[in-house]
Write the structure tokens for this entry.
Amino acid sequence: MDLVPALEEPLKKVLGSPTAKVMAEHLGLHTVGDLLHHYPRRYEERGQLTHLADLPMDEHVTVVAQVADARLHSFASAKAPRGKGQRLEVTITDGSGRLQLVFFGNGVHKPHKELLPGTRAMFAGKVSLFNRRLQLAHPAYELLRGDTEESVETWAGALIPIYPATAKLESWKIGKAIQTVLPSAQEAVDPLPGSLREGRGLVSLPEALLKIHRPHTKADIDDARARLKWDEAFVLQVALARRRHADAQLPAVPRRPSPDGLLTAFDDRLPFTLTDGQRKVSREIFDDLATDHPMHRLLQGEVGSGKTLVALRAMLAVVDAGGQAAMLAPTEVLAQQHHRSVVEMMGELAEGGMLGGAEQATKVVLLTGSMGAAARRQALLDLVTGEAGIVIGTHALIEDKVQFHDLGLVVVDEQHRFGVEQRDALRGKGKQPPHLLVMTATPIPRTVAMTVFGDLETSVLDQLPAGRSPIASHVVPAADKPHFLARAWERVREEVGNGHQAYVVCPRIGDDEDEPKKKAQEDADKRPPLAVLDIADQLAKGPLAGLRIEVLHGRMAPDDKDAVMRRFAAGDTDVLVATTVIEVGVNVPNATAMVIMDADRFGVSQLHQLRGRVGRGSAPGLCLLVTEMPEASAARQRLGAVAATLDGFELSRIDLEQRREGDVLGQAQSGARTSLRVLAVIEDEEVIAQAREEAVALVAADPELTGLPGLRTALDALLDDERERYLEKG
């Protein structure tokens, strides 16, 4: 929280240009304050050694270990044909596991002199696998002598902080830079109100910064982390509480459905009864719609829990009350699909102004970027006259030309794909701010909802409607057991033989536009991800020969995409080979099997979303996760977790624990500064909940924070321009 001139000092002045440049480019650190808030990831104890057995593949790591032995080998190569090539192999140990270090060429001389058996040092490098053994090639290292004056100073205390580092800047160099700026920590202005700090027994901010970077005991680390967690949670919750407070002051038109209008007529024609969950959530939404300030609600529900039905009932209630409702989808495929299913569900109630339309009917129009000019003109006319009560579309809805007669409700599907600016532009189309309902099928743990969507009230649909089938999921280890993959294709043939259909999902399209990315991938010694066009071709010629196979991906023309989806939905295609364009909202009840190629390249939530496309009818679903990753890898464990449970909330917790929160919040929290450093969204549920309570009370008593200059400054630092705009529009 870059509060004071001392903390706003550019690192260039303090550390010199070369170091400052690397810190800015690779770690996003620009000022003394930024560097003070770059906290250690963990601490090594001088007497203890790192667990070498648990190192993650392909990651940059820092380890403290002891040299067991070192051997110099000569070899012949193209550059050194006479056997003059030199390779130094050093084995380091932590007492249980071992790790090989390798140095080549002229780089062998210094380590050969310094890394003698028994020497202890910190080593940093990228973990790779060579001849089935873990190794670090050309690691950087820092000897831990502990006897010279300089070492004692630098590594004072028994705890060595290990910082998030990069290949360009090792942890110990970051540690030395922090020692240089640490005296400035005394000038950090405390954002927490004194009463809160004392009431919770938290140390001051300068003390917390000193203790996190130079702890003498584990208790120091605990004190510092407890305090810094509160800073992050509290400042963010105050920002969100002020946002909610400001929203509550905005005017909106209350929308109450008429007792025997469109909504009643719709409910009467539903062929099933609503689940208890759908009733409860609908009640929460209708209560919000009836108030005179705008609803801001997040509706989250498992794939297939009936969110679209709940949203449609809310839209009908608004149309009943004389307003219009707009539903925004992230892709054209999805907008067309929503339009089709809404028109089907409504029947003659969607034929307003047409012969045979019901008395209470309204018009439901579709608006996408690729529509013909005449259809588009008619749709725009229906919106501006109020003839159309419901419009469904992509971000084409947001263009300046689109005018509404009286926009009362905006429903946004799959929030994380829909920019905040776009939500804002659509809101600006109402005479007064319209009510807002955001839907997501990505289950979000309660605390993440409180942190990321803290300005939205949350409703959860966690019951699946009756008649949905279970989905069996299995990991297919293609490299270890190739016959498993052969069996997977047999299963697909069996499903098709029983009159069903299947999806095959690949991470990449495979046309020329992919090539630069592909090249970069190959340079990184990894084969490129499998591609739709290649796999479709291989399947058609090989294991699925004779079946009707089509492809679907994001770079096809919209009409072609829609035609492919229509044929698949009609049962004219047996197997659809696609990218993740099918991830959201595609509904084909007859599709029962899905094979996900290179499944380890997808996130946990994404796999859960994809899997939700099968088992939508009465026949059970099957999802096969194909991977070449070795059994011990983190990626395989992640896939095992997905195969083991269908509970999206459980999976979202696993997802969060495996990725750092910064990535999760990063998507939603634009501004780079806000990604959490010590606050762990899952573990610190209590801190977040308490911080929210304190923030709400504080903002209710003093919305302008007049008595708290330190907190105001911290908010300014958190809400740099980009972030402020983000919250404004959230």
Q: What stands out?
A: The first strand starts at residue 42 and ends at 45. The radius of gyration is 29 Å. The CA atoms of residues 252 and 432 lie 6 Å apart.
